[in-house]
Write a structure and sequence with these properties.
Layout: E1 3-9, H1 25-38, E2 42-47, H2 52-64, E3 69-75, H3 78-88, E4 94-101, H4 104-111, H5 115-130, E5 136-141, H6 148-160, E6 165-170, H7 177-190, E7 198-203, H8 210-219, E8 224-227, H9 241-250, H10 252-255, E9 257-259, H11 266-277, H12 298-306, E10 326-328, H13 334-343, H14 350-367, E11 370-371, H15 372-382, E12 390-398, E13 406-413, E14 416-423, H16 427-439, E15 444-452, E16 461-469, E17 472-480, H17 483-508
Helix pairs in contact: 1-2, 1-11, 2-3, 5-6, 7-8, 14-15, 16-17
The structure holds manganese (II) ion (MN).
The site of manganese (II) ion (MN) has 4 residues, from loops.
């Protein structure tokens, strides 16, 4: 019998703290729905008191996303816990996750309080959280640098106070697998009432050891893992969900443990996180990197053709990486189109289907063979998560050797059609300068990336841009067989997100 390991996903909270990652409420709901499909046990949807956006995201995910327990982070403070409760009260399954530092380094230099005081506050706030909900998790922050005897004392006290999960964070990513495993073992041996709670772990990847530390913790009694999709998070990030899940699944023989994750949803979830945050996955990243399942060596390829298990420890299908199969062409009908999208996990409204189908027909005319990846890009493009203030009507760019690149762009700005021409260093630059002139944006272009979705020069190009204005960063996407058009779409998508954010901010004061 395999030990069951709970997956606590914190992509929406710790993951969102990645430099450059920020998601709006609609994007968070979309991701939470996908996390539910993936089968995570708990979603940490945000830190309710930290911003109105976080609060709203937790509240709506709690009310709208079925399946997982929905959780909010809260410092060990009454106002934080009140706010977490306000955000969670409509969620059928809810958890408050409260935390307090326990290491001497933090207590002395940051909090300037004694160990006794920290313990007292922790116990009081666990009890306070329990007055709202039955499911309370407590984290002694910087646990891996805390005096173990004191750590045991705190854990025993918070479990007595009603915490049913105790999470042991390696907050600064300092621990090593042997050391972290021993820390968990020590907790199972020394904390008298530990059987009344689940031990969770939360590891950071500063030394590249997060997944290794988590696996060692599982060997020593941990039953919940806090992790993020693609391993995003503060600094070097968190334990990567897909790596720990696939390590347990592939090496069940060794760990005797498994999660409830539907691994076939991993790739789709990874792509969604990339799309929303604009943070790309390195090609050689385990499990979800572009090269993770491609074999270059001739000897390996020879072996694979004879018998896959010679060089393949996991099936690509097991993470939802289906062979790019020719799905449809220009003669495919609306019905086939809709049912293929459903198979890919997209439930669209009639209006969205109509828009996406129009796009599909255009693309099928241009490139003849339409692959699943192309369909995903069309869906992403035609189901934008924000209200569109700016709409691209038409554009035209000219470039070549010996001419000054020029662009003509026609846009709809809040219902009014505006047309302008401009010049630039290249066709993309000319288009971007013209769009900037039309919209009067003050944003700065932080990053610009083009990717071919499938092979061939007739492939759809997907462009990701990152814009910054004030302290706000957003990512925009666009796909088209013409990369200049894809570039314009990505820029306008990002501008719409900035506008959405500015208006939301104006509303919440
Ligand atoms: Mn963290």
């Amino acid at each position: 019998m395999n030990k069951s390991i709970k997956i606590f996903d914190t992509t929406l909270r710790d993951g969102e703290q990645s430099p450059g990652a920020s998601m709006n409420v609609e994007e968070k709901i979309t991701l939470a729905r996908q996390l539910a499909r993936l089968g995570v046990d708990i979603i940490e949807a945000g830190f309710a008191i930290s911003s109105p956006g976080d609060f709203e995201a937790i509240r709506r995910i709690g009310a709208e996303v079925e399946g997982p327990i929905i959780c909010s982070l809260a410092r060990a403070k009454k106002e934080d816990i009140d706010r977490a409760w306000e955000a969670l009260k409509d969620a059928p399954k809810r958890r408050i996750h409260t935390f307090h530092s326990t290491s001497d380094i933090h207590l002395k230099h940051q909090y300037r309080i004694s160990r006794e005081e920290a313990l007292k506050r922790s116990v009081e706030m666990v009890k306070y959280a329990r007055s709202y909900v039955d499911d309370v998790e407590f984290s002694p922050m910087d646990a891996s640098r805390t005096d173990p005897a004191y750590l045991h004392e705190v854990l025993e006290a918070v479990i007595d106070a009603g915490a049913s999960t105790v999470n042991i964070p390696d907050t600064v990513g300092y621990s090593t697998p042997g050391e972290f495993g021993a820390l968990i073992m020590g907790i199972t041996e020394k904390v008298k009432n530990i059987k009344k709670a689940i031990i969770s772990v939360h590891c950071h990847n500063d030394l590249g050891l997060a997944v290794a530390n988590v696996l060692r913790a599982i060997e020593n009694g941990a039953e919940q893992v806090e992790c993020t999709v693609n391993g995003i998070g503060e600094r070097a990030g968190n334990c990567s969900m897909e790596e720990v899940v696939m390590a347990l699944r592939t090496r069940k023989d060794y760990y005797g443990a498994d999660t409830g994750i539907t691994t076939e949803e991993i790739m789709r979830t990874s792509r969604l996180v990339t799309k929303i945050t604009g943070i790309q996955v390195q090609p050689n990243k385990a499990i979800v990197g572009a090269n993770a399942f491609s074999h270059e060596s001739g000897i390996h390829q020879d072996g694979l053709l004879k018998e896959r298990s010679t060089y393949e420890i996991m099936r690509p299908e097991s993470i939802g990486l289906v062979k790019t199969n020719l799905v449809m062409g220009k003669h495919s009908g609306r019905h086939a189109f809709r049912s293929r999208l459903q198979e890919l996990g997209h439930e669209l409204t009639d209006e969205e289907i109509n828009r996406a189908f129009e796009r599909f027909k255009q693309i099928a005319d241009q490139k003849k063979e339409v692959f699943d990846e192309d369909l995903e890009a069309i869906v992403a493009d035609e189901t934008q998560q924000v209200q569109e203030v700016y709409v691209l009507k038409s554009m035209h760019a000219e470039s070549g050797t010996g001419v000054t690149p020029t662009a003509e762009v026609e846009m709809e700005v809040e219902g009014k059609t505006v047309k302008q021409t401009g010049k630039g260093d290249g066709p993309v630059d000319a288009v971007y300068k013209t769009i900037a002139a039309i919209t009067g944006t003050k944003s700065k272009l932080e990053a610009y990336l083009v990717k071919g979705i499938t092979g061939g020069t007739d492939a759809l190009g997907e462009v990701t841009v990152k814009l910054e204005e004030g302290n706000k960063k957003v990512a925009g996407h666009g796909a088209d067989t013409d990369i200049i058009v894809a570039s314009a779409k990505a820029y306008i998508n990002a501008l719409n997100k900035l506008e959405y954010w500015k208006r939301g901010k104006a509303k919440s004061g």
